[in-house]
């Protein structure tokens, strides 16, 4: 594969550059642009500019307008109130098996978000050691349909964790679960590679085939809400803006 002068220039560009909301262009963006590959500089920068400035609420609204689904699993809540987004690496196991967590950390790619479907909440499959290892491996976050532990550490770590519960006890390093296969939780089908966005309000999951469409719609939601906030600052009431008065 030949490398063009543009490829070389893109590799050296500032990945911290950001575009104003009103100037974001998502015309050619795909879910692959969540990662910079040396050739997708413009798409990457525009996508990051959006994701850094929107919320799980706005993405859920955008997804609902397209699919009539929220993308939300209500029982999963933020442990340490950090924002994160990325592609999902799935795992499924029983609550007495934290060994599958260790295998998932080794199996996921840099930039992935681990998503665990755990059968039972009586024991934790994730804690401080797992978070430390995952963070150092370049994994972006961990989402657990089950229990975490070591809350004294997780609350203050620079590694986002979401779970349905927490408890102090753990199981054993059995490693009997499955990795990166389709899972189903509360009627929602989650495939490896689907998109997840999480923040203080919770998590939203978007099927990868709808990612680009949802991002465009989410940008529209963000712009509209920004305009509404400006109207409120000018003296309008929310009832007036909504056409109720």
What descriptors fit this protein?
two-stranded antiparallel sheet, 32% helix, Glucose Oxidase, domain 1, 2 domains, 11 strands, nine-stranded mixed sheet, 245 residues, alpha/beta
Describe this structure in words.
There is one protein chain. By secondary structure, the chain is α/β, with parallel strands linked by helices. The chain has two domains: 5-67 and 207-241, no CATH class; 77-205, Ribonuclease E inhibitor RraA/RraA-like (Glucose Oxidase, domain 1). 32% of the residues lie in helices and 22% in strands. The chain is built from eight helices and eleven strands. The strands form two sheets. Strands 1, 2, 3, 4, 5, 6, 7, 10 and 11 form a nine-stranded mixed beta sheet that branches. A two-stranded antiparallel sheet has the order 8-9. β2, α4 (99-107) and β3 form a beta-alpha-beta unit. The chain is globular and about 60 Å long. The model has no long low-confidence stretch (mean pLDDT 94).
């Amino acid at each position: 594969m030949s490398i063009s002068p543009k490829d070389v220039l893109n590799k050296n560009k500032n990945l911290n550059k950001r575009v104003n909301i009103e100037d974001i262009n998502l015309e050619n963006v795909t879910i692959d642009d969540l990662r910079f590959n040396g050739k997708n500089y413009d798409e990457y920068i525009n996508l990051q500019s959006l994701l850094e400035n929107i919320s799980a609420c706005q993405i859920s609204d955008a997804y609902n307008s397209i699919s009539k689904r929220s993308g939300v699993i209500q029982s999963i809540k933020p442990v340490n109130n950090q924002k994160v987004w990325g592609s999902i690496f799935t795992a499924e196991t029983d609550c007495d098996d934290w060994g599958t967590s260790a295998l998932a950390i080794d199996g996921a790619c840099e930039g992935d978000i681990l998503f665990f479907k755990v059968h039972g909440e009586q024991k934790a499959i994730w804690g401080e050691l797992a978070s430390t290892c995952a963070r150092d491996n370049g994994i972006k976050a961990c989402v657990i349909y089950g229990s975490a532990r070591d809350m004294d550490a997780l609350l203050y770590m620079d590694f986002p964790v979401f779970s349905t519960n927490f408890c102090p006890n753990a199981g054993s390093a059995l490693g009997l679960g499955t990795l990166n296969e389709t899972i189903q939780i509360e009627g929602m089908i989650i495939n490896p590679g689907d998109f997840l966005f999480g923040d203080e309000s919770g998590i939203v999951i978007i099927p990868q085939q709808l990612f680009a469409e949802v991002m465009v719609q989410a940008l529209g939601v963000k712009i509209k809400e920004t305009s509404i906030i400006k109207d409120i600052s000018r003296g309008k009431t929310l009832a007036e803006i909504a056409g109720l008065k």
